[in-house]
Specification:
Structural class: mainly alpha
Number of strands: 0
CATH class of the largest domain: Mainly Alpha
Helix content: 55-70%
Distance between the termini: 62 Å
Number of domains: 2
Mean pLDDT: 89
Largest sheet: none
CATH topology of the largest domain: Growth Hormone, Chain: A
Length: 546
């Protein structure tokens, strides 16, 4: 790195000086996570895109046009199953890009990573808009799937290390706030996209292209504001009045040392936590995909007060219970979001290992109870179990960065978290495959629709038992895995860490005073859109309770 004045995006440029309020960092992280979290809501585009040429009715492709043919065809509409590959790519690329560039992120700093994330995510949406305009699906795969997926990975892990360093006293709560935003992104993005498509729809277009352009521009503004809002604490900073707990004061699971990211592939505890996350996410993501059809098929006409099984309902009744199921899905999304903050914050009190024990034991009981509540016709118990399950699914994502910081130290926790996200990419394939194939297998055996999910639930319980065993085996690291003082000093130098902001030439004498009004404005900028998204979601939830 040159000794000249640091560039606008360089890590040295964002070291906070005296007077900086650490509560400005979480809204910066939320600004990015609320935008990239729209990845969860991309399915809102599938139905309109499946009629992009036909407008009213899809122009079906011939039997000779397979998946590869649909990448380049301009004469027929894409199938929804084909469009779904974008969703798969999102989470595969999220995991692989976070693992690949996590080390670079630690050294480059969160601002530079946030800017790259904004350019990839929003630029990818613009390329996708061009793909819609030209009716070239390969452009959408390249734009949102690949380039956007890379933006997802960098954006997702960009605040992790920074937040943990700003909140050593509340690691779980800090990461829970940011990762809550990723879960909440679809709450804002999905209704916004639906409104925009409705506004832009015309006799000659379904409005998706224009919606991509508008959302890309809006997201770019928010993500850049978030990236430029990031600050990192000076070396040795700690909150006023807080002292780190003694090394052996009932916290043997929290290390004061640091592991280099290059070593984690060979550390057994890393792979145990990898399995913990993979099993928790596989079970949860499988449930998310089947929650709506499961509710409809298990309870059938009883959802609308009609004493008929699912297969006996007419078209109008099917539409009515689908509306109820949409409300159920919206309710689950609220628990997914709330669980991220609730469980991650609770882990600061309970400890990370104990929190995951609760996830696996309580979660296992919930999964095991579902067939019984379904057979008894108890909608309340059925829905309650799924709400608890989804809260712990979200809580697992939000708690794991703090778990990693406890075990591996904080110096390179963002990069280590990036490598751990390969577990998410694996679970994104494993969970839905297990659930979908088991359902098809059971139907093929002639088992009634209301019973086809029973075996699946028991398989998911088995996954949680495996996750519980792995979690119980997590122990503090052997001293051989930690960096020596000399290695840590070398890594800090590579990460461009300075003792204080005043050491950086060109900084405003190290001062970084922030007014309370600025903090309030930052929180309002992310809080108002999130509140609007929750309001729109609650309107859907009312359909379920009505």
């Amino acid at each position: 790195m040159s000794t000249a004045t640091p560039g606008l995006l360089d890590k040295e440029r964002i070291i906070a000086g005296p007077g900086f309020n650490r509560w400005l960092v979480p809204p910066a992280a939320l600004a990015i996570h609320l935008c990239i979290g729209m990845a969860y809501g991309f399915s809102v585009f599938w139905l309109p895109l499946s009629k992009a040429l036909g407008i009213k009715e899809a122009i079906k492709c011939g039997p000779d046009v397979g998946f590869l043919g649909q990448l380049f065809t301009t004469t027929c509409d894409w199938q929804i199953s084909t469009l779904g590959w974008m969703y798969t790519l999102f989470f595969v690329l999220l995991g692989t890009s976070a693992a690949t560039w996590g080390g670079w992120l630690e050294r480059a700093g969160p601002r530079k990573a946030g800017v790259v994330s904004a350019c990839c995510w929003c630029g990818g949406m613009l390329i996708s808009a061009l793909g819609v305009y030209l009716h070239q699906f390969w452009l959408m795969i390249l734009g949102s799937g690949v380039i956007g997926g890379i933006g997802l990975g960098l954006g997702y892990i960009s605040p992790v290390s920074t937040l943990i360093k700003w909140f050593p006293d509340r690691r779980g709560m800090a990461t829970g706030m940011a990762i809550m935003g990723f879960g909440g992104g679809a709450m804002i993005g999905s209704p916004l996209a639906a409104d925009l498509m409705k506004n832009f729809a015309s006799p000659t277009g379904v409005g998706v292209m224009q919606t991509f352009v508008v959302m890309a521009l809006v997201y770019f503004v928010f993500m850049m504001a978030g990236a430029f809002g990031y600050r990192v604490p000076e070396t040795g900073w700690k909150p006023a009045g807080w002292t780190p707990p003694p090394a052996q004061a009932n916290n043997a699971m929290i290390t004061q040392k640091h592991v280099h990211v290059s070593k984690v592939w060979g550390i057994p505890q890393f792979w145990l936590i990898w399995m913990v996350l993979c099993m928790n996410v596989s079970a949860g993501i499988g449930v998310i995909g089947m929650a709506s059809p499961m509710l409809q098929e298990v309870f059938g006409g009883s959802l609308i007060g009609v004493a008929k099984k699912f297969g006996e309902l007419d078209k109008g009744q099917l539409a009515a219970i689908a509306s109820v199921a949409a409300g159920f899905t919206a309710l689950l999304s609220l628990f997914n979001i709330g669980g991220r903050f609730f469980w991650a914050s609770l882990s600061d009190k309970m400890g990370r290992k104990m929190t995951y024990i609760v996830f696996f034991v309580l979660g296992g009981l919930m999964y095991f109870s579902v067939p019984g509540s379904a057979a008894a016709g108890s909608i309340v118990l059925f829905v309650g179990a799924f709400c608890v399950i989804l809260s712990m699914y979200g809580g697992g994502f939000a708690t794991v960065p703090a778990y990693l910081a406890d075990i591996f130290g904080t110096q390179m926790v963002g990069a280590i978290h990036g490598r751990l996200l390969t577990a998410w990419a694996t679970a994104g394939v494993l969970g839905p495959v297990v659930v979908n194939y088991m359902r098809e297998y059971q139907l093929g055996l002639g088992i009634p629709r209301e019973q086809v999910y029973n075996q699946t639930m028991y398989i998911l319980v088995g996954m949680l038992v495996l996750g519980l065993i792995c979690n119980l085996l997590v122990k503090p690291l052997d001293a051989k895995w930690f960096m020596t003082d000399a290695e840590l000093a070398a890594e800090k130098k590579l990460a461009h860490e300075k003792a204080a902001a005043s050491e950086v030439k060109g900084s405003a004498s190290g001062a970084d005073t922030v007014s309370p009004a600025m903090v309030a404005f930052a929180w309002a900028a992310v809080g108002i859109p999130l509140a609007w998204g929750i309001y729109r979601t609650l309107l859907s939830v009312l359909k379920f309770f009505n």
